[in-house]
From TrEMBL:
Gene3D superfamilies the UniProt entry points to: Hotdog Thioesterase
Name this polypeptide is given: Acyl-coenzyme A thioesterase THEM4
Record carries keyword Transport: no
Swiss-Prot/TrEMBL catalytic activity: tetradecanoyl-CoA + H2O = tetradecanoate + CoA + H(+); octanoyl-CoA + H2O = octanoate + CoA + H(+); (5Z,8Z,11Z,14Z)-eicosatetraenoyl-CoA + H2O = (5Z,8Z,11Z,14Z)-eicosatetraenoate + CoA + H(+); decanoyl-CoA + H2O = decanoate + CoA + H(+)
UniProt keywords, alphabetically: Apoptosis, Cell membrane, Cell projection, Cytoplasm, Fatty acid metabolism, Hydrolase, Lipid metabolism, Membrane, Transit peptide
Originating species: Gordonia phosphorivorans
Pfam family, one: 4HBT
Localization per record: Cell projection, Ruffle membrane; Cytoplasm; Membrane
UniProt topology in membrane: Peripheral membrane protein
E.C. designation(s): 3.1.2.2
SUPFAM superfamilies reported for this sequence: Thioesterase/thiol ester dehydrase-isomerase
Main location: membrane
Length: 221
């Protein structure tokens, strides 16, 4: 796991987010517009050329590999490339997760980019988002957990649109944490999942005087 420390203040985090979140949002709009656009082929081709120019511009300075999850010295995580919650990742809906001990919840709006069966959420997307949520719930005690096993049951089709999701820790056994999660629409639960989350053997969080104890650490924002 990447525990790169980037010692910046909360104000600096907010400043950076105020730049990248609107950019990522525009890219989300772009993805949605490309899926649903009915303009002429000529206009689609012209759009491609303009997008290629923007890509070339952004590629002038690139981080190698992935974004990773840098942490501040106070252990505030910045998982901005994450596929479910990343502030710089247009693939992420994004989920804005609220956490309390043993619990993670969020609301989301899933549009055309998340389609599986016509008009419905792709099953893999539901699994991705619930996987993130079970990870967040299991990690609310300050220790990271990897998904060991995720069992997903699709109860009925999940229509694209406004949805909510919830994950709750149901038990702990040594390094294993058991989590139950659901995704719901206005009529109730559409998908449920059970996860066995595992804190890797020999895993040690960075320690130091500047760091709060694990239980008090904020693992991301
Ligand atoms: C601090 C920062 C963190 C921030 C996080 C913020 C939120 C992030 C949210 C992100 C969310 C995103 C989420 C993601 O995307 S997580 C990414 C997807 N998951 C992975 O890539 C995990 C890959 N697998 C591994 O790394 C290892 O296999 C793990 C760590 C899982 C176990 O390897 P380890 O060597 O440690 O295990 P052990 O052999 O000592 O066994 C220990 C116990 O566990 C039991 N067991 C083992 N494997 C499994 C299994 N697959 N299912 C069920 N149970 C299993 C085993 O029987 C034993 O039980 P017992 O005999 O003791 O009863």
């Amino acid at each position: 796991m990447d525990f790169r420390i980037e010692d910046i203040s909360e104000e600096e985090i907010d400043r950076r987010l105020s730049v990248v979140e609107p950019l990522t949002d525009s890219v989300r709009q772009l993805v949605d517009a490309v899926i649903r656009s009915e303009v002429s082929d000529e206009r689609l081709t012209a759009a491609k050329d303009r997008i290629d120019e923007i890509v070339a511009d952004l590629r002038e300075q690139q981080r190698p590999g992935s974004f990773g999850t840098p942490y501040t010295k106070e252990f505030i995580g910045m998982p901005w490339g994450n596929a479910a919650v990343g502030a710089r990742n247009a693939v992420a809906p994004p989920l804005h997760v609220r956490r309390s001990p043993g619990l993670a919840e969020c609301e989301m709006e899933l549009g055309a980019a998340y389609e599986g069966p016509g008009g419905c959420v792709h099953g893999g997307i539901a699994a991705l988002l619930l996987d993130q949520l079970v990870g967040e719930a299991a990690s609310t005690d300050g220790l990271p957990s990897f998904t060991g096993t995720l069992t997903v049951k699709y109860l009925r089709p999940t229509l694209l649109g406004a949805l909510s999701a919830r994950a709750e820790v149901t038990g702990r056994e040594g390094r294993k944490t058991f989590v139950h999660a659901t995704m719901s629409d206005a009529d109730g639960v559409t998908v449920e999942a059970d996860a066995i989350m595992i804190c890797p053997k020999d895993f040690e969080l960075p320690t130091g005087d500047a760091l709060p104890p694990p239980a008090d650490r904020r693992l991301d924002r």
